[in-house]
Amino acid sequence: MLKYVPGMTSVVMEEIPDRVTLAVDISNCRGQCVGCHSPFLKEDIGEPLTEEVISGLVRANFGVDCFLLLGEGRDPEALLRLAGHIRSLGLAPALYSGRSEVEDAVWSAFDYVKVGPYIPECGPLDNPATNQRLYRALLPGETPPEDAPTLSRSGRTFLDITARFWRRGIDPNR
Question: What is the pTM assigned to this prediction?
Answer without folding.
Answer: 0.93
